[in-house]
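hey can u run this one w/ zinc ion bound, need the structure tokens asap thx
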Amino acid sequence: MNPRLALAVIAGRTAALVSRRLGRGGGTALPGLVAERVHPGLVRDLARQLGAGRVMITGTNGKTTTARILAQILEEAERPYVHNREGSNLMRGLASTLLAIAGRAGNIPGARQMTGLFEVDEATTPAASAAIAPNAIAFTNLFRDQLDRYGEVDTVAGFWRDALARAPKSATLVINADDPSVAELAVGWPGPIHWFGLDDPAFATDHPGAVDARWCRECGGTFEYERRYFAHIGHWRCTGCGRARARTDTTIRDVRLGLDDATFTVDGLGEVTMPLTGAYNVYNAAAAVGLARMLGVPGEAIRKGIAGVRAAFGRQEVADLEGRKVRLLLTKNPAGANQVLRLLAAVAEQPEVGKLKVAVLLNDRFADGQDVSWTWDVDYELLRGSVHTCWAGGDRAEDMALRLKYAGWPAPGAVVQNPSTLLDGILAETEPGDQVFVIPTYTAMLDLRAELQRRGAVGQFWERDE
Ligand SMILES: [Zn+2]
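ok here u go:
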């Protein structure tokens, strides 16, 4: 065995132990960080032992959910796998994940039968690709993220092309055919490609929400759409060079979105109901099916995996606030926010639901995006006329209230930064049995959730790497 690797494993384990002794609960990155200092080839030497497939998943939205659905599918197929959890998708996170299952000399017991499931941050894909040598890489979608994180989408596309240059040329690319920005990654790829997408004319919309301007990288032409599902996702074609959406290998049809679940048909698998909702999650399921098929998982396990997945922490969570059903609908960027609004607009049309009670929480800390001008790219107008009562919260509650005013929403019942005061405001204007939708940015969700937990409205459930 490699003595350097063995030394790195010992160093990483010691760091994990010390971190635990110091009571640093969330110190997931530390062991990996320390071990990688000792041996920079750590991830490579550990990951490449995994003999049943190494899968890398990346994209602006859907990395975590796609990985979770695939993990559930592997669970149903009774196939051992290792999976880095949300929030540990940088190299040190991958290192920590692998360290946790490595034996003392740096060999992973049972590695030959094990699948590696790695969700990877966009900027980390080049390094991860070189280290992991993936057999399959899934690209979910490419959207403008929080404005100040990676800059423009071209920066991210650049990371991904770099990642492909470092990946084995035999790797299967599992690509969203409906997103022209990720579809172009297929141009010139010498290895196999598995396309996934949605074929559902009834799901198309004339109101796609915020659409970033997109140009064909091949010719600079513009895209036209035969059908648009949301934003720039749909059945597209370049008006310049004629490049167009590919025929899909995994196809989803007949999508029906509920408040808590989505029912759809997967070609070859039949109808399935997934306990997650939103168009994004339907695409995440399609990506997971494509990956599972590439790994040779039987159809029955794929069906069961989709049906058995659970929502990730802070997404689609329901709290019980003194009898009010408070639904948290986390949004991380304009496209995600538009998805939530579209879902709520559909919900408001159901006669038994009617007009909605909605709180929108805006923070501007690093993880939220420090420039809140992105709220002007979000179509809060979709809910004009559908809102009964609203509240504006978060550090930038006043900005949010202004945005909602322009969107034609009623005047907020409260405009408050403090999450506790906000909850009191919600309680004052609602009755037990009411349903309240909360649309928070990431850190606003954390703040509100902490307050809900303090009031016993949510469980201690805190799904994190530990
Ligand atoms: Zn073109």
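The chain has 15 helices and 17 strands. anyway lmk if its weird
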